[in-house]
Amino acid sequence: MNNRLKVLRAERDWSQAELAGRLDVSRQAVNAIETGKHDPSLPLAFRIARLFEMPIEGIFDDGHE
Predict the structure, then answer these.
(1) What CATH number belongs to 2-54?
(2) Is 60 helix (H, G, I), strand (E, B) or coil?
(3) What CA–CA distances, in Å, run from 60 to 19, 24, 56?
(4) Distance CA 7, CA 54 (A)
(5) 30 exposed, middle or buried (CB, 10 Å; 0-12, 13-18, 19+)?
(6) Nearest CA among 18, 2, 10 for reference residue 59
(7) Residue 32 DSSP SS3
(8) Nearest-angstrom CA–CA distance, 62 and 12
(9) Which residues contact 17 (CB under 8 A, 6 or more apart)?
């Protein structure tokens, strides 16, 4: 799944560790999501969307229109 997490994080000048702390996950989890090695759970996707004040679809794209 493609996502804009790295871009959104960089726009706020947050490290992966800072974002991980805000989401209550490990830095490795943030890295895995950013690099597309892991898709977030639905509850985590909602937390990410709330944190960035965006709809989930604005952050994650499954490639299907």
Answers:
(1) 1.10.260.40
(2) strand
(3) 16, 19, 6
(4) 13
(5) buried
(6) 2
(7) helix
(8) 24
(9) 27
| Domain boundary assignment for the chain | 2-54
Whole-number pLDDT of residue 24: 98
Condensed to tens digits (0 to 9), the pLDDT of residues 5-47 reads 999 999 999 999 999 999 999 999 999 999 999 999 999 999 9
Give the pLDDT confidence score for residue 63 in this predicted structure: 73
Which residues partner with 36 through β-bridges?
A: none
Mean per-residue pLDDT for 57-65?
83
Q: What is the pLDDT of residue 1?
A: 81
Query: H/E element holding 27?
Result: helix 27-34
Q: Check: CB of residue 51 under 8 Å from CB of residue 9.
A: no
In this model, does residue 64 exceed pLDDT 80? no
